[in-house]
């Protein structure tokens, strides 16, 4: 069984970050003991160096390894450079040959813009990596920040990837098992052909819609099934569905 915690949109700052909720979520996730944590962007609220320094301290509270990609808020005020200095590479690949899975992280942010783009160089690299995953029959997860298709209950549609159509075709054509994104602060699951496209809510931002609360996702993956769980901080877990794994 592979267990993954998917967190997103911390928005660490003096005004929009709920530290108490974040620390409660840290305790919950550490008790869960996932194999690793995927963080899909907006670690900071404005990309300031001091905010990234605080983020680094907060992330050290987690016991499990964390693999993060930047969001649009992280790319402000030279935050795109600070991310790689203090957090790590903005694009990366995690491969586990023993358990036959690959996780690919992509940078969808653009400096000082809310819109996102994967861009041609990353897409060419992604195509190559996904070709290898298909050949080797690997369970594949791709993670980035911006939502790639519209999300219900988020108001006027905006800030999708500028190259969403091309990237979506690449993901679906390669039958990527799971696509993990954040950005909208609303949890959601779409299934398109054989690909699950999963949004995480915000784990600690005060910028929430209606009476929604902070949350994160948990994924339990065994040889045949993907079990998606929504965990609202401080509340009981909610199943978002069980899906069969792709058969190769």
Please tell me about this protein's structure.
With 248 residues, this protein is of the alpha/beta class. The protein has one domain: Purple Acid Phosphatase, chain A, domain 2 (4-Layer Sandwich), CATH 3.60.21. 24% of the residues lie in helices and 27% in strands. It is built from five helices and twelve strands. The protein has helices spanning 19-32, 49-59, 79-86, 120-135, 164-173, and strands spanning 2-7, 36-40, 66-69, 92-96, 101-105, 139-143, 178-181, 188-192, 195-199, 215-221, 225-232, 238-244. Strands 3-2-1-10-11-12 form a six-stranded mixed beta sheet, with no helix packed on it. The chain has a six-stranded mixed beta sheet with strand order 4-5-6-7-9-8, with helices on one face. Helix 2 (49-59) packs parallel to helix 3 (79-86). It is globular, with a radius of gyration of 17 Å. The chain starts with a strand and ends with a strand. The mean pLDDT is 95.
Describe the secondary-structure layout.
Blueprint: E1 2-7, H1 19-32, E2 36-40, H2 49-59, E3 66-69, H3 79-86, E4 92-96, E5 101-105, H4 120-135, E6 139-143, H5 164-173, E7 178-181, E8 188-192, E9 195-199, E10 215-221, E11 225-232, E12 238-244
Parallel strand pairs: 1-2, 2-3, 5-6, 6-7, 7-9
Antiparallel strand pairs: 1-10, 4-5, 8-9, 10-11, 11-12
Helix pairs in contact: 2-3
Secondary-structure class: alpha/beta
How large is the share of residues in beta strands?
Answer: 25-35%
Count, helices: 5
Shape annotation: globular
What is the number of E strands?
12
Tell me the domain tally. 1
- CATH topology call: Purple Acid Phosphatase, chain A, domain 2
The order of strands across the largest sheet is 3-2-1-10-11-12
CATH level 4 superfamily: Metallo-dependent phosphatases
Low-confidence stretches: none
Largest sheet: 6 strands, mixed
The arrangement of helices and strands along the chain is: EHEHEHEEHEHEEEEEE
Over all CA atoms, what is the radius of gyration? 17 Å
Q: Report the top-level CATH class.
A: Alpha Beta
Report the helical percentage: 10-25%
Tell me, rounded to a whole number, the average pLDDT: 95
């Amino acid at each position: 069984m592979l267990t993954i915690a998917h967190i997103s949109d911390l928005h660490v700052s003096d005004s929009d970050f709920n530290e108490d909720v974040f620390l409660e979520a840290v305790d919950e996730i550490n008790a869960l003991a996932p194999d690793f944590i995927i963080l899909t962007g907006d670690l900071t609220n404005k990309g300031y160096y001091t905010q990234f320094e605080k983020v680094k301290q907060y992330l050290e509270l987690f016991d499990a390894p964390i693999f993060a990609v930047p969001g649009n808020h992280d790319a402000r005020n030279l935050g795109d450079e600070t991310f790689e200095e203090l957090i790590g590479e903005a694009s990366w690949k995690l491969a586990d040959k023993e358990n036959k899975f690959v996780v690919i992280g992509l940078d969808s942010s653009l400096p000082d813009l809310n819109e996102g783009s994967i861009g041609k160089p990353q897409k060419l690299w992604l195509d190559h990596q996904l070709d290898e995953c298909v050949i080797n029959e690997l369970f594949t997860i791709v993670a980035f920040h911006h939502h790639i298709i519209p999300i219900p209950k988020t108001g006027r549609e905006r800030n999708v990837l500028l190259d969403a159509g091309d990237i979506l075709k690449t993901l679906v054509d390669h039958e990527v098992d799971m696509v993990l994104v954040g950005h909208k602060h609303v949890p959601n699951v779409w299934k398109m052909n054989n690909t699950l496209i999963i949004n995480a809510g915000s784990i600690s931002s005060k910028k929430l819609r209606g009476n929604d609360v902070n949350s994160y996702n948990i994924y339990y993956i065994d040889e045949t099934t993907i079990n998606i769980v929504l965990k609202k901080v401080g509340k009981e877990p909610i199943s978002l569905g069980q899906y069969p794994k792709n058969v190769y």
